[in-house]
Amino acid sequence: MSKPVIMTVDDEPEVLNAVERDLRRRYAAEYRIVKAASGAQALEAVKQLKQRNAPVALFLVDARMPQMSGTAFLIAAREIYPDARKVLLTAYADTDVAIAGINEVQLDHYLMKPWDPPDERLYPVLDDLLGDWSASFRPPFEGIRVAGSPLSPKSYEVKDFLSRNLTPYQWMDVEQDAGARAEAEAASPDLRQLPVVFFPDGTTLLEPSNRALAEKLGLQTTASQPFYDLVIVGGGPTGLAAAVYGGSEGLRTVLVERETTGGQAGTSAAIENYLGFPSGVSGADLARRATAQAKRFGAEVLTAREVTSVRVDGPYRMATLDDGSELGCYALLLACGMQVRRLEVPGVEGLTGAGVFYGAALTEAAACRGKDVLIVGGANSAGQAALSFARYARKVTMLVRGASLTEGMSMYLVDRIDGAANVEVLTGAEVMAVHGTGRLEAADVACGPAREVRRLEAAAMFIFIGASPRSDVAVGVVERDPGGFILTGIDLRRDGKLPQSWPLERDPFLLETSMPGIFAAGDVRHGSSKRVAAAVGEGSSAVGMVHKYLETV
Ligand SMILES: Cc1cc2nc3c(=O)[nH]c(=O)nc-3n(C[C@H](O)[C@H](O)[C@H](O)COP(=O)(O)OP(=O)(O)OC[C@H]3O[C@@H](n4cnc5c(N)ncnc54)[C@H](O)[C@@H]3O)c2cc1C
After folding, report:
1. pTM over 0.85
2. How far apart, in whole angstroms, are the C-alpha atoms of residue 35 and residue 7?
3. Mutate to test the pocket of ligand 1, among 264, 288, 388 (most ligand atoms within 8 A of CB)
4. Choosing a second label site near 125 at 20 to 30 A (CA), which of 163, 394, 430, 447?
């Protein structure tokens, strides 16, 4: 495969040559550096690269150029290479241009001229963006291939696991592609087990579990020790933040995640309100960065492993894993978050994974190209998904139970949905049933005060109707509220009194549960804010309280 391209564009020859020189110095081994002296020349080069199927990783473009501005070039280039990272080079006074760039082309970064010394002002930014790009880049032919049927929920599960672990794969549709079918049949007679996952080393896995896939991908699934200072249950933003702080502050820390790190946030196409990411960040990117950070600090991260129960053994806290083995620790953090609420109407169960999906299921975006899509729900997550699928679908219809979108959604999303030509919002709308043979074909929706039922044809339906806490793992061990959320700190007091089960003289710490040494943070905790930043804040604060607790044992 040819090297991916970094393209730089500037109309001032001196600047262009200086950028090219600095890019070559650092990236020539892995990337091909292409330069152009104008937007028009660059666009011609971009078209030729596309014809040769050459990947482009990054555009680094001067903001102010005669004829075609940097932003105008990036708008055109984005049509051809939507995934390439986009950086504008601006003079100090051009901040307005850069902000306009963020809004118009979802700019990834703007760099001020001059960028000297490049080791401090150029390379760290580009390293980060190129790391991001490579993590989601799907090479044309090499790598893992998944042969399956779009009608099979198991095929969807495997694709989802791979993509949430940012593992590139090629999808081979055995329904549409005779070659793919023949290859899959050779490994799985009569296609009894699907999908078939082909690995570059020549091995295959049939209908694999998440754990089997995780092991094959080289992800850690077994703890290296039997005992830790801190065991974290759940690898969403809360658990990841706790792992970063636990690891960095010298605690022997292990995090156990039943699926893949990222939690609910990992399913979000674009988190736009998380501090420090003015153009938004995808949940998968945030999870990848946080997981790498936690591991760098020495925390162990077990993927595709579930904690089935927790128990107390004197001064030790024990987590039982899905194979019956146990992990011991001094302190345990429940960061189990929430699970999506199921839509209980006729037809949904049989079609889940075959056109009906919970969450944003971004693996399905390409399959929705040119088709009609339904989004059920009216909160921010539904709004983000509607905008994201609107880039591919012919039409997106949002089915919102409330009287208006503003009831449950941030204004910035409401405005964008209003401005999206192919997104329609039906308020007072409720799904009554879904239909399809093997795959979703239509949904019956009751609309308006008269509850008139309309049949809406759709290729896919994505459901965002809230979530409930995953606290069963600690049932009988810690106090919960009637909704199942775990009580901590001051919330444990009823009529000013701590529960009888609290055994100590001291009050519980802020995020401590009714069992000393067991902490709860993030969405699973009673009274939490249900936001990424709040989850990260609680996960890191919990480690502070773990330290205080460890001083007492
Ligand atoms: C689609 C979507 C979009 C969102 N967008 C935004 C946004 O733009 N901005 C914002 O601020 N918030 C957003 N949120 C909310 C935000 O994602 C959550 O508040 C945040 O993820 C909560 O983090 P958490 O770690 O507490 O829980 P979760 O994210 O729910 O993570 C919990 C993790 O624990 C794991 N787990 C549970 N039980 C076990 C067990 N027994 N053993 C092992 N692992 C277990 C789960 O698999 C999961 O990975 C969004 C949510 C969704 C669903």
Report:
1. no
2. 6
3. 264
4. 163
